[in-house]
Structure formats: C-alpha cells, structure tokens
Amino acid sequence: MRRMGEYRLEVNGDTHEVSAPDHWTLLEVLRYRLGLTGSKQGCDKGDCGACTVLVDGRPVLSCLSLARASEGRAITTIEGLMPAHLRAGGKGADPVQEAFDRCGALQCGFCQPGMILSARALLNRCPAPSREQMRDALSGNLCRCTGYTQIFEAVESAVATSLGLTPAPRSWEAPPVAKEARP
Amino acid sequence: MSARDLHGPGAPWGPGEPGAKSNQEFVTVGKPHRKVDGIAKATGAAIYADDITLPGMLHAKTLRSPHPHAKIRRIDTSKARALKGVHAVITGESMPIKYGVIPWTPDENALAVDKVRFIGDPVAAVAAIDEDTANAALKLIEVEYELLHTFLDPRESLVRAEPAIHEGRKEGNISKSVQLEFGQVDEALASADVVVEDDYFFHGSTHAPIEPHCAVATYSPDGVLTLWSATQITHYVHRALSRVLELPAHRIRVIQPCLGGAFGGKSDPFSLEFCVAKLAMLTGRAVKMLWTREEVFYAHRGRHPMQLHYRSGATKDGKLTGVDAKILIDGGSYSSFGLVTTYYSGQLLTGPYHFPTYRFDSTRVFTNKPPCGPKRGHGSVQPRFAFEVQLDQLAEKLALDPIEIRRRNFQGDFTRTVNGQRVTSNGFLQCLDEVERASRWRERRGKLGFGRGLGVAGSMYISGTNYPVYPNEMPQAGIQLKVDRSGLVTVFTGGNDIGQGSNSMCAYIVSEELGIPIERIRVVAADTDLCPVDLGAYSSRVTFMVGNATIDACRKLREQLVAAVAEKWGCAPTRVRLLEGLAIDLEDTSRSMTSVEAFHLAETKFDTLGATGSYNTPKLGGDYRGGTIGASPAYSFTAHVVDASVDVETGRITVHDVWVAHDCGRALNPMIVAGQMEGSAYMGIAEALFEEHDVNRFGLHRGPSLLDYRLPTSLDTPEFRARIVESIDPEGPYGAKEAGEGPLHPSLPALSNAVYDAVGIRLKHLPFTPAKVLAALREKRERESVATAQGAR
Fold first, then answer.
1. Mind telling me how many Å the CA of B537 is from chain A's nearest CA?
2. What is the mean pLDDT of residues B358-381?
3. Which of A22, B105, B266, B558 has the fewest CB atoms in 10 Å of its CB?
4. Chain A residues with CB-CB distance to B209 below 8 A
5. What is the DSSP letter of A2?
6. Which of residues 140-169 of B touch A (CB under 8 A)?
C-alpha cells in the first residue's frame, strides 16, 4: 500500500500545502496537484530536460527530484517568470520568453519551458554569455525541432536587448561565408 | 482543375508574372512575423494533450508483448479486473476490427488479436483510478504465449514465408514489391563511358519528438465520443476510430491540442487512441493514456532500414545515362504507410538531375521489429543518401568537381521527369551557387589538409502529393472564415500545426489578403467538429494546400468587402484596396474607412459574413500503376555543403558547419523557413552520426530511452547556415513550396562526401560511428600498402 505525504512547497512565490503519494516527483506534484502544466514530461528519467524548473535559482530536473526534497526551497516554474517580471515593474513576458517568441525559437514548444528556464538561470549568473557558454548551459535540454540555432539567437537577442544593443543579423539574413578553418 | 483556376481572378502569387517585382510588394508575407502561438508556448500557457485533466478522469496503461513473435494461447484478466480501483480491462477481442492508415493494408489491431509481432506489441489495456493502480493491474493479467520463429533479418523474410507474420497473404512475408523501368536502362549502362556499382546501407532511426504520445477520451451520455490526441492527422484518426469502434463518424469528435513534435511519428492511428476511446465508452468516465518514453520507441514508425544497391552510368563529360536501383526495405511488423514508402523509395529520386533512363526494384518485407513508417523525408532520404554518394564516386572517376557534375545533370525547370512527374519551378542551380559561394568551396575543397574536408549533395522533395490516402475527388484542404463585428476574423482549418507553424501561416495569409493586422486573426485548427476537413500534416503538404485554400476563401470574402465599400463610395470595386486595417480608395487616398466599418457595410449588404475555400491538386503523375504516388503539384530543391573533420586516432567525426540552401518557392515567413531548414539539417546530421534504432538478436530494442538513443545536445550540434532560395512557384500560395522535409536529405550524403574529401574513405553504411570510420581507415591503409608493395615489385 502506498504512503501519502504532506508537503509544503514554495512555488512561484506562493506557499502550497499538498498531499501526494510519497514517491511522487516534484514534476508530478507541479503538474497533477498544482495544475502547473507548463513543466513538461518528455522522458521521466532525466534525459531530456523538458521538466527543468529553477530551485533556489538553479536549473533542476523536476522529474528526478522527489517532491519532499524540494520543501523549503524557492521553486520557479515557467508560469512564474512573467508574473515575476510584471511584479518587478516590467511589461509583458520575461525578456527571455519574449526573445524566444520574437526569434522564432519556439517550434513545437514542448522543450522550451525547460530551455527558457535554463537560459534564464544562465543569464542570471552570466549576463552576456558567449555561444560556447550557451551551448554548455543548455546542453541538458534536448530540442528536436530547431537544431538549436534559433535558440542561441534568441538568447543572444535577449542579451542584446538587455544591454540596449541592436541584435546581430539572423543566420538567414547574414551572408554566411566560411570563416578560416577553426581548430 | 489547376490551382490557378480555383482562385478565380488573380493568381495566388500576385497580379504579375511569377517573380515579377510587383509581386514583392507584400505587407505581411515575406516578413519574420511572430507565430500566433509563440508567446503561449514560451509562457507555459499552451495546452498539450497530457496537460488536459478532466473531472473523474481515469488513467490507462498498456500491457505489451515480451516476445517478438508468438501466438496468444490464453489471456486471463480476471485478477486484474478484481483489483480495487480498476474500472475496465480490454484485450484484442474488445476491438477485433483491423485498421491501417493506408486503406488497402489494414493489418493492425488496437490490441493484439491471436498473435503478437514484436516486443512491445500492445496486448491489453487497463483503466484505473490512477497510474499506480493501472500498473499494478497489468501485472495481474496472465497471458500464455506459444513462441514462433522470429524474423529479424529482412533477407530471411524475403525468402521464407512460414511462419507468416501476417497470415492470409499470398505474398508471404513480403509487404510490398514494386518494379518500374523507364527507358532501356541496361543498354544505357552498357553504352556509358563510366559505370559505378556499389552497395549502401541505411540504418533505422526514429522521430523522438520530446512529447510522448498521449490521448484523452470522453463519451458523453448522449453518445458522442470526444478524443484529444497528440496526432498530426486528425482526419485519419477520425475515420479509423469510426471503423474500429463501429461508431458513426458524426458521433466522434477528434481534437488535436498543441502538439509537442511529430516528424511523421504521429501520422498513424495508434493503439492508445482506440484504447482510451473504448475504455471511456465502457466506463462512462474520461480516460487518459500517456505513453512512457519506452513505449514511444515501440510505437516507432520511424525511418525504414534499407539495403540499397545502385548502378549508375555516365558519359565522359559527366552526363548520367542511366540509374538502376535495387532496394530491400525492412518494414518491421506492420504495413503502416509501407505501400507508399516502397513507391517513394524509387519514385522520388528523379530530380534535380535528368535521368535519361531509370529502373528501380524495391521490396518491403515484414520482420518482428517495431513497425517502420514515415519519418521526415519519407522513403526518400535513404535512396538519396546512396545516390548522392554514388554521384560523388562518378565525379571522382571522371575527375570532375562534385558540384560541377551536379550542375551538368540539372534537369531544368518546367520539365517532366523520366517517371512522368511534372516539375514546375526549380531553383536547384541557385542552391548550388549559394552553398558553393558561402562555403568558399573553390578555395577550400581538397585544400584543408588531411583530416578535414568539404562535401556536397543535392535533393528534391514533394510539396504534398496528389494521392489522397483514401481515394476521393473532394478537396484535399478546406478553410472556413468567420467575420465578427468586432473586426476579428476567425480561420477554421483542419490543418494540423505540429510546431511547423501552419496556424501562423493561415493568419499571415488572411492578414495579407484582407489587409488586417495579424492580432485581429484567430486560428481554430484540427477539431473535427469545428473545422473543414484537411488531410493533415504529412508529405509537406500544408503550406501549399492549406495556404492555397486560405487564399481561395479570402478572395471570396474580399470580393464582398470590396463590393460593399465600392457601393458606399459609388466607385468601381477595382479602386478599393484593403490595407493595414483600412479600406482605401486607390485613386483618392484621402478617402478611407476602417476594416471594421467595411465588415459592417458588407454584413449589411450580404448578410452574415463568411467564406469557404479549398484546394485540390491538378491531375498529375505518370500514366502507369503507381504513377500518381510521388506526383506533387510542386517540388522543393536543396543543396548542402558540409564541413567536417575526422580524428584518425579515435575515428570520431566532427561537423563544423552545414550550409543549407533551399528553394522553398517563396518564404512566407523567412524566420520560420530558416527554422525548418536548420531543424531538418540537424535531424539529418543526427541520424548520420549518432542515432540508431535497432533491436538485439532477441528482438529486444537496444535502448528505448533518450540516453541510449542519442539525440545530439547543443554541444554536439554544428552551426547551420540557412540560405533561402526563392523560385516563386506558379501554383504555390504566393509562389511558396515546402520547407519542412526537403532540407534534411542532403545532410547525410554531404557528410559522407566531406569525410571522403577529408581522409579518403567512402562511408556507405550509416551511421558513421567511430568504429566504422576506424575500420575504413584501416582498410584504406591496407589497400595502399598492397598497392605500394605491388608498385615496388
């Protein structure tokens, strides 16, 4: 017989008291108890990254985290970004979400809640990352649609906007002539 | 009737000839607008199938076969039924009617009847109060199997008919066989100056969309079944449900919620759709089934493994004289789209090069593996790989530049292929020019030093097919427009937006045609109760067909709007232009009214406003059996150059850059087109280097997880450089053709050709693992040392 647990979770600034089976992951509690279905389940074993949420500001795979292990920590899901941005006096969605939309980085969109949160965490600790830093920071989030190009462009666009710079031309706009051979 | 005729006055690409400057003056079309669902997806607000929770909803799970080929002697579900919390258990006998996406080959059951055909074949399903209870119930179902001989090698299936994987077929374990010859191939090859003959192998790969399959069903007290499903073809699911459940189609409603990727992997009707429907009918409760990632690998329908033998001849100046192909296709355990796959493996190779003569002999067989089906570039990625490598072999023998041999064999535009397909616009030469220039091919190819090289390949692909999956003369795409007094226009489309942006495409066209901003357009899609029929998201048909249907509907509505405004102004309707939320008098630009006012005038004059539009293909295809399969109203063309390095110590290949030039006719939104091109090239490189969908010697999947089936991460993915080529097709919407599948094809052969340029080995067996690279390097060294020794003697 399974055992039930009572959890007190702090999600997107609100404290929720939740009752769920002991073995439930944070992802299951978010999706099926709190109705926060923005965090996606793609594999349920930590391979794809679609379930990524921020726990105390760091990207965490919610499908591999037991709900009880997340008590007492600040959890941010994709649904929390825009309200936080509005609370901070911003307009519309979080600049990273906005850039993903503006740059066409969302095709099927299923990986993107996790991807956007990983990107948000990257920009929080490194406001102007290089493309290599982006590749590294987003390597835990599989995207099957884009080939990642427009995702990198979206992050770069968000950086440019935050620094008040004009974003670089998009890949299909720039004349893509081969550079000298890289090592 | 041609697309042009369907639209009445005004060609879809604009008032002038295709490509004329006046046609470049679009307001919405051709600009990198946002997608209509972008911000909903970015904020987590978009609802996918598994995000749906209904009151009292039960959770369903599937029991699957542990054997690759076995008779079911007995199933006992009584203990499972007795478990507290279990509401229903169903087995094959609950739904004995067979189905299949191709109406000629219905060989699937929702749950196995009498026998199982691969490890993972669904056998029983349980609906219970929660997933844990359903899983517990699965363990209580007793199944007694009688094991049968397992077919894992397609060559065995070719010659051995017993035991039949599907009984009652006169062809034994052969699923489909097609032999077609155009011209005298043997004579053409005998008279060629140079002939290359070789074998190639294409492994299996799968779609691996990040969203697993999921379906939710309810059955209302008044007898209406509603199914929400992660499908890319609502219409065929609707038809299949009606057949299998023996319910009239008007009592079934199928809705596709937001879809988390498909790539062809959600084109067939699937077991879970029938199971949740049946369980909802039996229990009177809403039922959801979400497949695990492991189950998605068993559902498969991925790229067919193919053993390909090609023989091609050319004159000494590099002109092809004939191509001869023999292909053995491993279909896995069911037919799926296999009839089409078998034809496509031959029919889609006859461009962008002119084949004076051509023959193919393709045979698809059944094996006891997860069933193969359509994956992005259905049936044509494998032969394209083999042929484009062979073309490089020919170029080498003739000491021709690989780009040059492709130019010399260009088939031209507005022509007919050797197998009778009509080709309209064709920007392939421009594609070659673009990748040659951008990659600095002339300065760099063959000059990057041992270990690094450039390779090129080309391809063509269909923009939809004129072969509807079930024979009928009705439109292939339909659109309905509804106009609200607020100024909002709602577009109802049966088209399936699977992330490629088809809903956005509809909105851009309505905006262009009716002169209203995109935010005043709402798109309601893929709901069989609300939307006119569309045949779904496959064969790269949506932009071409749904786009043309949208233009058709808009032009009818526009005629009414313009007539009402002209009457009010007492001027000729030709003076009225709808632009940027206004109706403007072209001859007196001080006179204008808002589009809302124009809508009100038209509603007053004509009654409630709305319009329908449709598209059907013109009569196409060769005049022979199978001649319409692969016949498309327009073809897209692509060329890639790949820049890759080979580490001769480890055998590891690194791809640096992929230049992708693609002729999409006209880019209705260049940002979305570039996204399709980059995503396609990514998927091609991924299956060339990393991915392999295979079973072990027991028929068990080698690694049904996203860790073992290796999708490239952001660290493994090269830089993609998209160059859009616009040939402005005379029949496409504003001249548009497809962009979602064509740009995958050249990735694999261009990489193989780049490896040859880098280190002098021909990789003909996919995927290009380090072990294969090292073996080929070793073989090359041995060959060279023998040659040196012989030279010394």
1. 13
2. 98
3. A22
4. 108, 110, 144
5. P
6. none
Check CB contact under 8 Å for A93 and B706.
Answer: no
Pick the CATH number of B306-467+622-783 from 3.40.50.300, 1.20.1260.10, 3.10.330.20, 3.30.365.10: 3.30.365.10
Is the CB of A108 less than 8 angstroms away from the CB of B32?
no
Architecture per CATH, domain B474-615, reads as 2-Layer Sandwich (3.30)
Q: Nearest-5° angle of CA B522, CA B523, CA B527?
A: 140
CA distance B170 to B292: 37
Decide if pLDDT at B691 tops 50: yes
Residue B176, token pair as written in the block = 């489909």
- Selecting from B499, B671, B713 the residue whose C-beta is nearest the C-beta of A108 gives B499
List the 660-689 stretch of B: residues with Cβ below 8 A of A.
Answer: 670-675, 677-683
Kindly identify which residue of chain B lies nearest to residue A178, measuring between CA atoms: B439
Q: Would you kindly state where each structural domain of chain B is located, as residue ranges? A: 49-148+213-290, 306-467+622-783, 474-615
Instruction: Put the strands of the sheet holding B592-594 in their side by side order.
Output: B576-579, B582-585, B592-594
Asked whether this chain's domains B49-148+213-290 and B474-615 adopt the same fold, the reply is: no
- Locate the chain B residue with the closest alpha carbon to A93: B43
- Give the residue on A whose Cα is nearest the Cα of B704: A43
ipTM above 0.90 for this complex: yes
Residue that has been written with the tokens 């004349």 in this structure: A175
Quick check: A37 and B47 CB within 8 A? yes
| The pLDDT of residue A181 is above 50 | no
A&B contacts, CB < 8 Å: 213
Domains and CATH numbers, chain A: 4-78 (3.10.20.30), 93-162 (1.10.150.120)
Checking DSSP bridges between strand B58-64 and strand B287-290, what pairing results, if any? Answer: parallel
Q: What is the pLDDT of residues B451-480, one digit of tens each?
A: 999 999 999 999 999 888 899 999 999 999
pTM of the model: 0.96
Q: How far apart are alpha carbons B122 and B773 in whole angstroms?
A: 39
CATH superfamily of B49-148+213-290: Aldehyde oxidase/xanthine dehydrogenase, a/b hammerhead (3.90.1170.50)
In this predicted structure, the answer to whether residue B8 has a pLDDT above a threshold of 50 is: no
B76 dihedral zone (left: phi>0; alpha: psi -120 to 50; beta): beta
Convert the pLDDT of each residue in B642-657 to its tens digit.
999 999 999 999 999 9
Cα–Cα distance, B117 to B699 (Å, whole number): 10
